[in-house]
Design brief:
Mean pLDDT of chain A: 91
CATH topology of the largest domain in chain B: Formate dehydrogenase/DMSO reductase fold
Radius of gyration of chain B: 27 Å
Structural class of chain A: alpha+beta
Distance between the termini of chain B: 49 Å
Order of helices and strands of chain A: HHHEEHEEHEEHEEEHHEHEE
Number of helices of chain A: 9
Strand content of chain B: 5-15%
Number of helices of chain B: 20
Shape of chain A: elongated
Helix content of chain A: 25-40%
Oligomer: heterodimer
Largest sheet of chain B: 5 strands, antiparallel
Low-confidence stretches of chain B: 570-581
Number of strands of chain B: 9
């Protein structure tokens, strides 16, 4: 690592001639080469057709927007989506309902591992098809064990279910004590009063700390610009839910906010052919989930020992 | 006030200008670094446009070599404090000037850390969301928000301390203790905190059993205090070589000179000799006649011919010297290499530092040409220095010398030694706990050390690191590493070993297997690697520029006094030009 060891200029020019013709030419040659090299190295930026506009760059944090701000932003998003996909979507900012806390129950005895929920989720929530992003991962486990390290992710038999195995779909567990929310340095992800942990896609900086913190591998990152075929776009959208995401931000299961906050079931539940999935309001004593948690004898909170306290319960028909 | 501001800007301007002055070696080095920076920038521009898909990272392994480098460099930055502690707490004079090099290294390392975090972001355009007060800052819950505070705070602290000390030196003013000592102590605590916070980034994640272990914090500190000073040992030797090295042809001559016994014509000094000295040293004129007379007790005047030695490195005599006529060169022999440190002319002193401190001579002095030299006992010099003007000039000349001694380097070796032993001990603790208990969570450690389910990308890496660390540890314990050649080998082994162990060996296996038990491996892509090289080149570029500014200031060659003159060249060449017959 040689440091400078210059010798003094043998023929020092008088100070007035400091900007002599020769040194001027030399300086400008060096400057031009430097600038040309800099420009050449920044060339890949020209490929970008999605430079953030000033409006998007300065967009406020979700919780700090006034209803008027939100109205403007929603209209802008609708226009942007229409421009990109040719379909005018309906984007809403749905707030949690009072007296509601959502809980999911999944019957492991019934699940046959068909992965219909995975694909219904992708279609409903406008996940990128290339590269593929999925919120639900179905694990195949041998009977007699709940050791996740023995799970098979890429099982591909002729038909399901297979003898000797059971299946366990895993998605965001909507923890009561979510590690992802705790670690986010900028409050870009938080828990709403109905128990759903949401992400402000326009606030996330993409540090992926939440992805490292999540014990359930529930979070997904947009490593590049997501791509969704135009004809597959679901135009019924929510700001904190299934509106299209941009490159470089996190996303994850949000219990289909755009459906469940208007009284519908999540897409994964509706598509399930065996009725293994149950969803509802735990604060309502007459709900199906209340019944299950009161009357079923075996249920599991995944990785209970971590103290995350999931709102997602696995149970068996015993 | 306006004058002060003007002076400060002149200082900054001159510092900036000197960064562009150098010889062909300097330009080649800086040119090469610039090329790597631009290649890195190009790779980053591609990543910015296409997204992190151009890296090897995935949803399974969501942090890679960027965060690995970040973690390592936070350690390097924190370790700068290990230079500060001996100096300010134990008053180790040998390391005094070297502290600035350590702190400048810290500044360069933090800049690299910030660059590595930035390139790891998916949306760097939204960085302002992280600014406290403007964005949304999740403090104190998120360890990452702590990291933002401690890293930027550490950067400011070190920039302030280095900047203040260098500016004082530039103005030839004594640094006011109250303006920097409190900050130095804050920086010591802060240095520990930056690395602890970085460890807590990992330790705090309950869902990642490989990281969720209390020993990670202490291990981070131990490995940082081994790798950081190791890096400083290497950097200091480079500084020493380019600032004070004897040209190859001179070595034989100097070796001969060092062998000549002190032989000279000798007579008692008189007031006339002091009068002659005062002509070159105006401050002496202000000393009262009585004090001058007092100082003559034991003072001698030596007449020497070219090549005669006046004092010898290692000797324990206690006199100071002033040149009355002719020139004397001062050089040091270290590890078989001779370095000319100064060429002393009329009115200037040498040998006073060891005389006043009563320590062995750190250098040899021989006459370059026929010379007349005044030799004063330490007590006589003290008498002269009771005069405030004399005191100021002598002290300021003493401070101007930049000393990178072997003793200083060996002090650092001691730090590396202890830290490495602790680091290896902690590693053994970790390995024992993981494998002996053999519970479910051993999967990541198994993957790292032995391979798991047929996946073993990291196994060769971690064993290389372990071998490097163990060899380095053995070398550090053996007296062999007291020789600089072996010490350098040891330092390289430490740095590489710890980089692997703490970077790739800590960050990556934490993700494998995934929390759902899936095995997905990671290896950096070419694009990612180019970005890393670019950032390292950027860091080295910064550090070189910092040294390019700091060295002449510390040597007293760039100062307010010589404002308006052409910028000084560093170190040796001007001296070697002077010694040529």
């Amino acid at each position: 690592m040689p440091l400078p060891a210059p010798s003094p200029n043998p023929n020092p020019e008088p100070p007035d001639a400091g900007m002599s013709r020769r040194s001027f030419l030399r300086t400008s040659a060096v400057l031009t080469t430097g600038l040309a090299a800099l420009a050449a190295s920044l060339k890949p930026l020209l490929e970008m057709n999605d430079f953030p506009t000033m409006e998007r760059f300065l967009q406020k944090y979700y919780k700090e927007m006034t209803p008027e701000d939100m109205e403007k932003v929603l209209q802008r998003i609708e226009a942007e989506v229409e421009k990109q996909y040719g379909i005018r979507p309906h984007v809403r900012d749905l707030k949690p309902m009072d007296g509601v806390e959502f809980v999911y129950c999944l019957n492991l005895t019934r699940c046959i591992g068909c992965r219909k929920c995975v694909h219904a989720c992708v279609a409903e929530n406008n996940q990128s098809r290339n590269p593929e992003i999925q919120y639900i991962r179905v694990l195949r486990l041998p009977h007699g064990s709940l050791d996740i390290e023995k799970a098979e992710h890429n099982y591909a038999p002729e038909s399901v279910p297979e003898k000797g195995y059971f299946y366990m779909p895993v998605q965001c567990q909507q923890c009561k004590n979510p590690p992802c929310v705790k670690v986010c340095p900028i409050h870009a992800t938080w828990q709403e009063t109905d128990g759903i942990t949401v992400i402000d896609y326009d606030w996330c900086i993409g540090c992926r700390y939440c992805e490292a913190a999540c014990p359930y591998w529930a979070r997904r990152f947009n490593f590049t610009k997501p791509s969704i075929p135009k004809e597959r776009l679901n135009p019924d959208m929510a700001y904190l839910g299934n509106r299209p995401r941009r490159q470089g931000v996190m996303e994850k299961c949000h219990f289909c906010i755009q459906r469940t906050r208007v009284g519908r079931y999540p897409a994964c539940l509706e598509v399930c052919p065996t009725g293994a999935r149950k969803f509802g309001n735990i604060l309502d004593p007459n709900s199906e989930v209340s019944y299950i948690l009161k009357n079923k004898r075996v249920f599991i909170q995944l990785k209970e020992e971590l103290g995350t306290s999931p709102r997602f319960f696995y149970y068996f028909d015993v | 006030m306006t004058r002060a501001i003007r002076n400060y800007f002149v200082f900054l301007w001159r510092c900036a200008r000197i960064a562009f002055v150098g010889d062909w070696r300097y330009y080649t080095w800086m040119g090469a670094l610039t090329v790597f920076c631009l290649l890195g920038l190009h790779a980053y521009a591609r990543q910015f446009a296409q997204g992190l898909i151009v890296t090897g990272m995935s949803d399974e392994v969501s942090w890679g070599v960027y965060i690995a480098n970040f973690t390592f460099l936070v350690g390097v930055a924190a370790a700068a404090v290990m230079m500060v502690i001996p100096v300010y707490i134990y008053n180790n004079e040998e390391l005094h000037d070297l502290v600035i090099f350590g702190e400048l290294l810290a500044v360069a390392a933090i800049l690299m850390c910030l660059a590595f975090v930035t390139v790891d972001l998916g949306r760097p355009d939204r960085f302002w969301h992280l600014i406290p007060g403007i964005g949304q800052f999740n403090f104190p819950a998120s360890m990452l928000s702590w990291d933002v505070i401690v890293l930027n705070g550490y950067l400011l602290l070190n920039v302030y301390i280095c900047g203040y000390l260098l500016y004082c030196r530039y103005q030839k003013k004594k640094a006011a203790k109250w303006f920097y000592i409190p900050f130095v102590f804050i920086a010591i605590v802060w240095a520990i905190s930056i690395h602890t916070v970085t460890a807590f980034l990992y330790v705090g994640l309950g869902g990642r059993p490989f990281w969720n272990s209390a020993i990670v914090g202490p291990r981070f500190i131990a490995s940082a205090f081994a790798a950081g000073p190791a890096l400083i040992i290497l950097a200091l030797q480079v500084v020493r070589r380019v600032t004070a090295s004897a040209p190859a042809g001179e070595t034989a001559r100097l070796r001969e000179g060092a062998a000549v016994p002190g032989a000279a014509m000798c007579r008692a000094a008189t007031l006339d000799d002091l009068e002659l000295l005062a002509r070159h040293l105006p401050e002496l004129a202000s000393v009262s006649a009585e004090a001058r007379q007092n100082s003559l007790a034991g003072a001698m005047v030596l007449e020497v011919g070219p090549g005669d030695a006046l004092l010898h490195q290692g000797a324990k005599d206690t006199e100071a010297f002033f040149v009355l006529k002719g020139r004397v060169e001062v050089f040091r022999e270290e590890s078989g290499r001779f370095r000319i440190t100064r060429s002393v002319g009329p009115g200037e002193q040498f040998g006073e530092t060891s005389a006043l401190a009563g320590t062995p001579r750190v250098a040899t002095a021989i006459a370059e040409e026929p010379a007349r030299v005044l030799r004063l006992p330490a007590d006589s010099l003290r008498k002269l220095m009771r005069n405030p003007q004399m005191n100021r000039i002598i002290r300021s000349r003493m401070r101007e010398r930049l000393m990178i001694t072997d003793r200083g380097l060996l002090t650092l070796r001691g730090i590396v030694q202890v830290s490495m032993l602790i680091n290896v001990f902690l590693l053994i603790n970790e390995v024992f706990k993981e494998f002996y208990s053999g519970n479910l969570h051993v999967a990541s450690a198994k993957y790292l050390f032995l391979g798991l389910h047929g996946y073993h990308a990291l196994v060769p890496w971690i064993w290389t690191a372990i071998v490097f660390n163990l060899v380095a540890m053995v070398l550090l314990v053996l007296p062999l590493s007291r020789s600089l050649k072996w010490l350098n080998v040891t330092c390289v082994l430490c740095i590489v070993g710890i980089w692997i162990e703490k970077g790739m060996g800590l960050v990556i296996p934490g993700f494998i297997p995934s929390p759902l038990g899936e095995m997905v491996e990671y290896s950096p892509t070419l694009n990612e690697t180019l970005v890393c090289f670019g950032i390292w080149a950027f860091g080295l570029l910064c550090y070189t520029v910092f040294l390019r500014m700091a060295v002449p200031i510390l040597q007293g060659k760039l100062s307010k006094a010589n404002e308006g003159q052409p910028e000084p060249a560093t170190g040796a060449p001007s001296l070697s030009a002077a010694v040529k017959p």
